[in-house]
Fold:
Amino acid sequence: MFKKMIIDSTSQNSISVLRDTLSTIIYPIIKSGKTIIILCIGTDRSTGDSLGPLVGDKLKFLVRDRIHIYGNLKTPVHAKNLTEVINEINLKYENNYIIAIDACLGKLQNVGKIMIEKKPLHPGSAVNKSLPTVGDLSITGIVNISGTMEFMVLQNTRLFIVMQLAEIISRGLYHSILKTVGGKSSHTSKNKIIQNI
Structure:
């Protein structure tokens, strides 16, 4: 049974591996009638922590009847509003499945890699913030090295790495949704883009 997968964003088949991995997880969720929420966590005020909002921005046209996206560059989901957004999601969509996306710090050899785990995210742990855990599935991009002065490390992260991770994650997710749900969004879904993003 799937628990954890690590994908190198620099490998040629990273998008297809991510797509196929997510498709096998998403398909039974869709079949069960649950609403999928893609929750992109982070802030555009810190290069290293902008992964989530960048992914949300790239996925804004992915909204379908039972697929909704929270968090982008214009309206990020971050430490100050995360609890409020989680409460809103749970109130609005009772039968939901949350895919939480965030940046994280890790070992040098893992920088630029994507981790997919069937467990909640612990946002803010890199900068010692106590935030609620969130998500049924977590997708994290390792943007820099963990260690001391992690707030400064996030601030001084290379934008290239973050952009590369955001591109692979968004394209992998996009193609997994097309594969499992289909290519057309309904008229009502298009209206929801304005509400949710």
Observations:
- The CA atoms of residues 120 and 135 lie 4 Å apart.
- The domain at 4-183 is CATH 3.40.50.1450 (Rossmann fold).
